[in-house]
Amino acid sequence: MALHRRFRAARRRGVSTFESILVLVVLIIASFAAFQFGLALIVKQTVSHAATVAAREAAKGATADELICVVNRLFQEYRMQIGPDVSLVLEDPTAVIPIDPRGSLPCVPPATPILDSDEVRVTVCVSLTAGPFVNILKFYGIDYTGRTFEISSVATKE
After folding, report:
1. Which of 13, 29, 136, 141 has the fewest CB atoms found within 10 Å of its own CB?
2. Tens digits of per-residue pLDDT, 20-29?
3. pLDDT confidence of residue 2
4. CA distances (Å), 129 to each of 11, 36, 133, 144, 148, in order?
């Protein structure tokens, strides 16, 4: 009788260990997902802020080269800059070059709303495989490869 109880207790310990391992794996994946999405939201907020600041500066009369300096300054903590992973498009209907793209990442500004002559629009595009992004959930079906944040901001000229 005592031997039977010991065998049952040992078997239960094995089941408990197996259940703990399963729960631990799920918790680790959930932690990675929370980290990855949290980082993506922080960078998305930075991209939004960069587009807003760049549009405000463009409305004051800044050139595309000056806007590149502004955007690069905002992205420097994430080790990103205008180039293969970050692009900027300045739209000014009254300028000599009405649409001035910078950076090699494909970035298509939105077609609407149509800008008035006293407005400028800046679109900032960031690749989700650049800078601080860690694509750790790629093997679980959450893959950032080929995806971008594209955020536009419109400002009225002063």
Report:
1. 141
2. 898 998 898 8
3. 58
4. 46, 12, 6, 6, 8
